[in-house]
Amino acid sequence: MRPGSIHAILAATVFGSMLSVADVGAQTRQLPRFEVETGWLKVPPQFRVGDVSSFAVNAQDEVFLLHRPRTLKPDQAAMAAPPVMVFDASGNYLRSWGGAGAGYEWIEREHGIHIDYKGFVWIGGNNCPASNLPGLKPVADDQLLKFTQDGKFVLQIGKSNQSKGNADTANVHRAADGWVNPTTNELFVADGYGNHRVIVFDADTGAFKRMWGAFSNKPADKDDCEIQRYTNFSDPGPDQFSIVHGLRVAKDGTVYVADREFRRVQMFSSDGKFIKQLVKPDTLFARNLTLSSDPEQQFLYVGDGKTIAIVDRKTLTLAGSIDVPGMLGGGHHIASDSKGNLYVAATTNGAQKLAFKGMTTAGR
User: Fold this and answer.
1) How far apart are CA 78 and CA 73, in angstroms?
2) Contact, 341 vs 356, CB < 8 A?
3) Would the N or C end of the chain have less CB density within 10 A of its end CB?
4) Which residues of the chain are modeled with pLDDT < 50?
């Protein structure tokens, strides 16, 4: 029998801050506080940026922005910035790279970016040929790409338009996100839009290691270009993932998966054993997720419609939410830096930095 999720929906307000808190118990605890850092991103005047899909942060707190140049209108296309743009923590432009090149197949529709513990950059895409999006080739993004931080090609896992479905161990199928576990040097992939699974590869060689679906089930094939929307959200919910849209691996090896359209976060051991889940049916929960940067990684930040939910990582219960004036909402993908700041990629709504302003007492 599949364990159900834990619901904690009671709301309170923290005095003296703009943090809305869900009271998950009588104990007082410290929660992070944020403010929008206005004017943070400083794009050079010669460039135009398309839909901002994802962020990643390196060990020096340089921020890597992944955007979709081909979403720009024709009158701006000639000024399109390369798909990977790098900024310092203050938002100053440093460099950019990406796009078609020798020895690899660049993705058609940029989706997720991750920088691993060795400093390598991983990029995936989610183009579907039947979508017929303007300016894109009618192929599926069934590959993952690995580069240096200056854009030198290192490795490709999978081939464009070659997925054989959820049983395929050589290709992904429109993968949404990825994360390398430093302890095992394994790449965990949220695979994603076409497939509905977590798949794990050796981060050096790209060799297949293992895979699993929701509740550790064997993933089943259901490949839809059009995103399937749902109105009923039961607990525990369907046996399969919907869109596996976000994934993070904590320092202790625990794997967290954002199952977007079913509004749930599932928690697994590193070998794929299901542990528990959190379902939040009343909002657009589990759009994405990232880990807090404190040593214990106390929290998961989870995109939740117009807000970002703060989830206790170990208990997988709601602890609070980030809801500050001027924020873009939960966004498409989010990332954190070593100082605790959050970077929100909101596709058509742009991008934003939420500056960490310390901890505040909650639960009084």
Assistant:
1) 10
2) yes
3) N
4) 1-26, 363-364
